[in-house]
Amino acid sequence: MKQQPTLSIIIANWNGIEDLKISLPSINSQSYTNYEVILVDNWSTDWSIEYAKKTIHNIKIIELKKNNGFAWPNNKGYEVSNWKYILTLNNDIELTSNFINNAVDYLDNSTDDVYAINTKMLLYSDKSKINTIWIWILKNWNWYNIWKWEDQWNYQEVVEIFWPCAWAAFYKKSAIKKLWYFFDETYFAYLEDLDLAIRARINWYKAFYFPEAVCYHKHGNTSKRFPLKKYYLIERNRLRNLIKYYPLKNIIFESYYSLEFVYKWIMSSKWWETKIDKQQKQILKNVFWLILIIIKSRFTVLLELPSLIKYRKSQKKIYILKNYIYEK
């Protein structure tokens, strides 16, 4: 009987012991057993490491000296990985029992130009609803996450996608080696998986959504602790990707789309029609912070502009098929 291929599960963690109490037991319950678990800990102080050692036999622990976010820890795990496939897994995700077995079986039978698959993530709080399944690129070169809380039985077919979400995605290590590096560590967190997806597409690799690998995600459980930092990182990294890869016309019109977004937020408050209530005050407060985030992120990227332009010149022309543009 042919031996099953092996897999490295990489989990970035920061004070996530309560989430690990969900994810790690679900790894132990997998029908597929030929894997290793690599926990990359961002200087936790909540006994996460002790719990992981007690729960997963022979787990590999990489202890970092500060909180390095998501990209760096996953790269550290990738560097020590011994196996054919990589699974990047958020610490707040519970796996169904055949999650790994189904995904590995699909990867074993995939062609060499497939570098990743995206899994079907349902809501942990309501396991009958979809959390996210894949991410589309919008026609204005922003993005749209397919997570409309739809019924779990929707989206049951395997389809080619542009951007796998690294919350729970499988990657072929042989393909990643040909893409120069795994995640861009300077991103800290958010959109590093888009940077990888673009590099993969430039080099003619494909990704697929695979609905038979099902898991449950406690959406926003980690990022809710630092919402302003989350939105700053998203905006900064979005601008980095824009300058590094996208056509010049999209860079020119980017400011228009950002201003349009702020304008819609302000108009949604309708503060001029009635006395400002609590909800309207919150919207205006959010707009204020959003404007500061937009300014700060642009200032940061402006300082990085010489290195971003140098990187852009070293890349092949961005190639995104029309089929991946979501007409919203």
If you had to describe this structure to a student in words, what would you say it looks like?
The protein is α/β, with parallel strands linked by helices. Helix content is 41%, strand content 21%. The protein has helices at 17-28, 48-55, 71-80, 99-108, 173-176, 192-202, 227-245, 248-269, 278-314, and strands at residues 7-13, 35-41, 60-63, 85-89, 93-95, 114-123, 130-132, 135-138, 143-145, 159-161, 168-172, 206-217, 325-326. The strands form two sheets. Strands 1, 2, 3, 4, 5, 6, 7, 10, 11 and 12 form a ten-stranded mixed β-sheet that branches. A three-stranded mixed β-sheet has the order 9-8-13, with no helix packed on it. Helix 8 (248-269) packs antiparallel against helix 9. It is globular and about 50 Å long.
